[in-house]
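Recall the central idea of this unit: under ordinary conditions, the amino acid sequence of a chain determines the structure it adopts. In this exercise we apply that idea directly, starting from the sequence alone.
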Amino acid sequence: MKLYSVDLSPYATRVRMAIHAKGLDVEIAPPPGGDLKSAEYLAVNPMGKIPALVLDDGTVIPESDTIVEYLEDAYPQRPLRPATPEGKARARLIARVAELYVMTQGLTLFGQMNPAARDQAVVDDAFGKIDEALVHLNHVMGPGPYAVEGDLTTADCALVPLLFFMGVFGQVFGKGDVMAKYGKLGPYWAFIQTDPVMAEGIAEMAEALRVRMGGG
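Accordingly, the structure predicted from this sequence is:
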Protein backbone atom coordinates (compact mmCIF):
# COMPACT_ATOMS: atom_id res chain seq x y z
CA MET A 1 0.00 0.00 0.00
CA LYS A 2 1.01 3.60 -0.55
CA LEU A 3 -0.29 6.69 1.22
CA TYR A 4 0.01 10.02 -0.53
CA SER A 5 0.55 12.55 2.21
CA VAL A 6 2.11 15.87 3.17
CA ASP A 7 3.32 16.37 6.72
CA LEU A 8 1.48 19.64 7.41
CA SER A 9 -1.98 18.33 6.56
CA PRO A 10 -3.96 17.44 9.70
CA TYR A 11 -5.99 15.00 7.63
CA ALA A 12 -2.94 13.18 6.27
CA THR A 13 -1.39 13.23 9.75
CA ARG A 14 -4.52 11.56 11.09
CA VAL A 15 -3.94 8.63 8.74
CA ARG A 16 -0.19 8.46 9.34
CA MET A 17 -0.83 8.28 13.08
CA ALA A 18 -3.28 5.42 12.61
CA ILE A 19 -0.83 3.58 10.34
CA HIS A 20 2.01 3.90 12.85
CA ALA A 21 -0.21 3.02 15.82
CA LYS A 22 -1.33 -0.15 14.04
CA GLY A 23 2.22 -1.02 12.98
CA LEU A 24 1.31 -1.31 9.29
CA ASP A 25 3.82 -1.47 6.45
CA VAL A 26 2.65 1.39 4.23
CA GLU A 27 4.81 3.46 1.91
CA ILE A 28 4.28 7.16 2.60
CA ALA A 29 5.03 9.50 -0.28
CA PRO A 30 4.31 13.07 -1.41
CA PRO A 31 1.85 13.55 -4.26
CA PRO A 32 3.43 12.73 -7.64
CA GLY A 33 4.20 15.72 -9.79
CA GLY A 34 4.97 17.74 -6.67
CA ASP A 35 1.51 19.29 -6.41
CA LEU A 36 -2.03 18.28 -5.50
CA LYS A 37 -3.26 19.63 -8.83
CA SER A 38 -0.58 17.99 -10.96
CA ALA A 39 -1.79 15.77 -13.78
CA GLU A 40 -0.01 12.84 -12.17
CA TYR A 41 -1.82 13.22 -8.86
CA LEU A 42 -5.19 14.05 -10.39
CA ALA A 43 -4.93 10.72 -12.20
CA VAL A 44 -4.77 9.11 -8.74
CA ASN A 45 -7.35 11.30 -6.98
CA PRO A 46 -9.38 13.56 -9.29
CA MET A 47 -10.49 15.59 -6.25
CA GLY A 48 -6.92 16.83 -5.89
CA LYS A 49 -6.91 16.39 -2.13
CA ILE A 50 -4.87 14.43 0.35
CA PRO A 51 -4.58 11.93 1.80
CA ALA A 52 -5.19 9.13 -0.66
CA LEU A 53 -4.43 5.48 0.02
CA VAL A 54 -3.55 3.27 -2.95
CA LEU A 55 -4.06 -0.43 -2.31
CA ASP A 56 -1.86 -3.12 -3.81
CA ASP A 57 -4.49 -3.84 -6.48
CA GLY A 58 -4.60 -0.17 -7.52
CA THR A 59 -7.82 0.73 -5.70
CA VAL A 60 -7.68 4.33 -4.43
CA ILE A 61 -9.34 5.31 -1.15
CA PRO A 62 -9.48 9.07 -0.45
CA GLU A 63 -10.66 10.99 2.65
CA SER A 64 -8.95 10.54 6.00
CA ASP A 65 -11.90 9.17 7.97
CA THR A 66 -12.69 6.64 5.24
CA ILE A 67 -9.06 5.53 5.07
CA VAL A 68 -8.84 5.03 8.84
CA GLU A 69 -12.08 3.06 8.85
CA TYR A 70 -10.77 0.89 6.00
CA LEU A 71 -7.54 0.19 7.87
CA GLU A 72 -9.51 -0.81 10.96
CA ASP A 73 -11.68 -3.19 8.93
CA ALA A 74 -8.86 -4.65 6.84
CA TYR A 75 -6.31 -4.93 9.65
CA PRO A 76 -8.16 -5.62 12.91
CA GLN A 77 -4.92 -6.43 14.71
CA ARG A 78 -3.98 -3.67 17.15
CA PRO A 79 -7.49 -2.20 16.97
CA LEU A 80 -7.92 1.55 17.36
CA ARG A 81 -11.68 1.42 17.78
CA PRO A 82 -12.86 1.28 21.39
CA ALA A 83 -14.19 -2.09 22.52
CA THR A 84 -17.73 -1.05 23.50
CA PRO A 85 -20.52 0.44 21.36
CA GLU A 86 -20.57 3.45 23.68
CA GLY A 87 -16.83 3.92 23.27
CA LYS A 88 -17.07 3.64 19.50
CA ALA A 89 -19.84 6.25 19.46
CA ARG A 90 -17.79 8.62 21.63
CA ALA A 91 -14.75 8.21 19.37
CA ARG A 92 -16.80 9.06 16.28
CA LEU A 93 -18.43 12.01 18.04
CA ILE A 94 -15.10 13.48 19.16
CA ALA A 95 -13.69 13.20 15.65
CA ARG A 96 -16.79 14.75 14.11
CA VAL A 97 -16.95 17.69 16.53
CA ALA A 98 -13.25 18.38 16.05
CA GLU A 99 -13.43 18.30 12.27
CA LEU A 100 -16.75 20.10 11.73
CA TYR A 101 -16.55 22.80 14.39
CA VAL A 102 -12.89 23.24 15.35
CA MET A 103 -10.95 22.76 12.12
CA THR A 104 -13.48 24.68 10.02
CA GLN A 105 -12.53 27.83 11.92
CA GLY A 106 -8.90 26.75 11.93
CA LEU A 107 -8.87 26.94 8.15
CA THR A 108 -10.14 30.51 8.43
CA LEU A 109 -7.32 31.41 10.81
CA PHE A 110 -4.72 29.74 8.61
CA GLY A 111 -5.64 32.26 5.94
CA GLN A 112 -5.09 35.12 8.41
CA MET A 113 -1.58 34.24 9.58
CA ASN A 114 0.11 36.96 7.51
CA PRO A 115 -0.13 40.13 9.65
CA ALA A 116 0.06 42.35 6.56
CA ALA A 117 -3.14 40.88 5.15
CA ARG A 118 -4.95 40.14 8.41
CA ASP A 119 -8.57 41.13 9.05
CA GLN A 120 -8.91 41.34 12.82
CA ALA A 121 -12.69 41.10 12.67
CA VAL A 122 -12.38 37.76 10.87
CA VAL A 123 -9.84 36.57 13.45
CA ASP A 124 -12.03 37.59 16.39
CA ASP A 125 -15.08 35.90 14.89
CA ALA A 126 -13.14 32.69 14.26
CA PHE A 127 -11.78 32.57 17.81
CA GLY A 128 -15.27 33.13 19.19
CA LYS A 129 -16.55 30.15 17.24
CA ILE A 130 -13.52 28.08 18.23
CA ASP A 131 -14.24 28.81 21.88
CA GLU A 132 -17.79 27.49 21.44
CA ALA A 133 -16.46 24.42 19.65
CA LEU A 134 -13.83 23.69 22.30
CA VAL A 135 -16.45 23.98 25.05
CA HIS A 136 -18.50 21.35 23.23
CA LEU A 137 -15.45 19.20 22.53
CA ASN A 138 -14.42 19.38 26.17
CA HIS A 139 -17.91 18.19 27.11
CA VAL A 140 -17.85 15.10 24.87
CA MET A 141 -14.29 14.04 25.77
CA GLY A 142 -13.90 10.92 27.86
CA PRO A 143 -12.38 10.82 31.36
CA GLY A 144 -8.83 10.45 30.00
CA PRO A 145 -5.99 10.17 29.74
CA TYR A 146 -6.71 9.53 26.03
CA ALA A 147 -9.63 11.09 24.18
CA VAL A 148 -12.08 8.27 24.90
CA GLU A 149 -10.59 6.70 28.01
CA GLY A 150 -7.48 4.64 28.74
CA ASP A 151 -6.23 3.64 25.28
CA LEU A 152 -5.18 5.29 22.04
CA THR A 153 -8.06 5.25 19.56
CA THR A 154 -9.17 6.65 16.23
CA ALA A 155 -10.44 9.69 18.15
CA ASP A 156 -6.90 10.65 19.15
CA CYS A 157 -5.67 10.29 15.58
CA ALA A 158 -8.38 12.70 14.44
CA LEU A 159 -8.12 15.15 17.34
CA VAL A 160 -4.40 15.63 17.91
CA PRO A 161 -3.52 17.16 14.50
CA LEU A 162 -6.32 19.70 14.91
CA LEU A 163 -5.28 20.62 18.44
CA PHE A 164 -1.73 21.11 17.18
CA PHE A 165 -3.04 23.94 15.02
CA MET A 166 -5.03 25.39 17.91
CA GLY A 167 -1.74 25.68 19.81
CA VAL A 168 -0.08 27.33 16.83
CA PHE A 169 -2.92 29.81 16.40
CA GLY A 170 -2.79 30.71 20.08
CA GLN A 171 0.85 31.73 19.65
CA VAL A 172 0.49 33.45 16.27
CA PHE A 173 -2.54 35.53 17.27
CA GLY A 174 -1.42 36.33 20.82
CA LYS A 175 -4.04 34.20 22.56
CA GLY A 176 -1.59 32.11 24.60
CA ASP A 177 -2.53 28.56 25.56
CA VAL A 178 -6.01 28.33 24.07
CA MET A 179 -6.66 24.91 25.63
CA ALA A 180 -5.65 25.68 29.21
CA LYS A 181 -9.05 26.92 30.37
CA TYR A 182 -10.92 23.78 29.32
CA GLY A 183 -10.99 21.21 32.10
CA LYS A 184 -10.22 18.13 30.00
CA LEU A 185 -8.43 19.53 26.96
CA GLY A 186 -5.51 21.11 28.81
CA PRO A 187 -4.45 17.94 30.65
CA TYR A 188 -5.22 15.87 27.55
CA TRP A 189 -2.90 17.95 25.36
CA ALA A 190 -0.10 17.75 27.92
CA PHE A 191 -0.49 13.98 28.21
CA ILE A 192 -0.93 13.12 24.54
CA GLN A 193 2.44 14.63 23.64
CA THR A 194 4.07 11.88 25.72
CA ASP A 195 2.62 9.15 23.50
CA PRO A 196 5.36 8.14 21.00
CA VAL A 197 3.06 7.82 17.97
CA MET A 198 1.28 11.09 18.66
CA ALA A 199 4.56 12.87 19.42
CA GLU A 200 6.02 11.73 16.10
CA GLY A 201 3.07 13.12 14.18
CA ILE A 202 3.19 16.40 16.08
CA ALA A 203 6.91 16.74 15.37
CA GLU A 204 6.36 16.13 11.65
CA MET A 205 3.70 18.82 11.52
CA ALA A 206 5.83 21.27 13.49
CA GLU A 207 8.79 20.82 11.16
CA ALA A 208 6.61 21.18 8.07
CA LEU A 209 5.11 24.38 9.49
CA ARG A 210 8.57 25.75 10.26
CA VAL A 211 9.59 25.20 6.65
CA ARG A 212 6.30 26.62 5.37
CA MET A 213 6.82 29.80 7.39
CA GLY A 214 10.28 30.30 5.93
CA GLY A 215 12.36 28.57 8.55
CA GLY A 216 14.53 26.76 6.01
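Residues 2-74 form a domain with the Glutaredoxin fold (CATH 3.40.30.10).
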